Amino acid sequence: MLGFLWGCYRKCPHMSTKSFSIHWNLKSQFPNTCFLPFARRCSLNAFPLSFFHCPRIHSPKPYLPQPPLVQSNPYNQTPHDVTQARESISEYLQELGLSLEDSISISSNSPKYVQMLVDGVKELEEWNAWNDSNGEGDSLGFKEMIIYMAKEKGDNGKVAFLESVGLPLSSAMSVARYLSSESLPSIIRKVKYMKENIFSAGDDKGGLSGKNARRMMMHLSISSDEDVQQTLSFFEKIEARRGGLEILGLVDATFRFLLESFPRLLLLPVESHLEPMVEFLENIGVPRRSMGNVFLLFPPILFYKIQGIKSKFLTFEKVGAAYKDIGKMLLKYPWILSTSIQENYEQILLFFEEEKIPKTSVDRAIRSWPHLLGCSTSKLKLMVDQFGELGIRNKKFGRVIAKSPQLLLKKPQEFLQETVGKLVSRCPEVFAANIDTTLKKKVELLAEFGISNDHLPRVIKKYPEVLVSDVNKTLLPRINYLMEMGLSRREIALMIRRFPPLLGYSIKEVLKPKLNFLLNTIGKPVKDVVGYPRYFSYSLEKKIKPRFWVLKGKNIECSLEVMLGKNDEEFAAEFMGVGRMLVSPSATFQ
Question: Which UniProt keywords apply (predicted)?
Fold first, then answer.
């Protein structure tokens, strides 16, 4: 057998460029296999030796000359070689219809592709030198051979472009095969459109997209359809990178993963599909700056037809959602358009109906927190039962989920630990107090002043100290003082509901001096604190006075919330004419 192979090899003194390209392509698929060329009368130019089943020979083997193997490291490349190769690739891309600017940009940002072509030319040169031949390659210069190699790859420049937008060479080659029917100028136009109009820098501050992706995955407890599965795989690719899902909203970092996971994106026509899709989403309330976040959280939306999306929207008319409401839901939870979520939505409505939860409360909960739609009814039932043990059922439970729907996504044990834990750490005296003589008395007092059972949990959560405060020495005197200043019981109750810590402020040290400044210096009526009771939480000397004098010096009148609700940088930018707070208003005042 070995003698036969050597005889065939001797009949082929040199390889043509075409034969070599076949050899090169084979070796790229079998990098650890040695190939021998066959005579021209053979149907194939080369077979791997492993193709023949030869018996193992233990006697000394005769030396057979071998052609050079492709090395794992690149051939000796000089900067001149790389420069010439880039120029050749740029010329080739221009032949394909690209502009000079685009061709230079692509050839300069696809180093692995350049290296691959240079290695191929170097190997051909070594092959011809080893064979002492005058093959077709000898008649071409280095730059011409680079162009020849690029054409032989058959991707028409797509691999170079895909590498230039961030894909690794192996992924670029895979995606390029998928896009074989598309021309390179068409692909470039689509990528530019997507980056400039869909995935342009938006409002993903603080890794908002990544946080939402984690929340969506964490609360998904139903079987997912193919679209959601592909999206989860996309998330996993990004999660495996440095920075994890926090980089999801950074398009430059994640666009390559988007193309790797969804190469079909580059088959979508711009005029007849992408542009109408963008316009449609804008019309239902999705801002252009947030559109990229929606698509990154659920890329399959881009493949949906607009009419299909409209038909899916009809489902949510059952919760009283108008188009603008659906746009807001889509921003929070793009998976609402997936088949699995739509099917689960019907199960959730049926479940709450059986639990006798008012539909208006359920509708409001879903509109404000659509993540509920990814939760199984068996998991929801655990929390419904937990609230039932606390005496919160039917209409009462409906009022709870309408205001805090995210509570349904907690585990019962976590809910109890969190609620009780906060109270213990904030005010442990509550658990040592007598129910009848202490706690019940405070609850009755709050109810007397207009704090209903609906608002009582929030008041206690925000200011649990109210349950252990002395009624006659602290609570009643403070309430009576506010009434003496001209506020009604209803207005005081409204202030307590908005800002429960109000009941903890001393009359002498806080309430009186700040009201005096409000009435006598600022010149505003006492009723203004009803709309903004947090006024009492700010330092009179460090914040209220300095900001008032700054505004007064500029003859600016505004509400208490506008004056005090902004941080120093925002206040300085709006009222002091600077982009950043170099000195605080208090320092300016002093």
Answer: Transcription, Transcription regulation, Transcription termination, Transit peptide
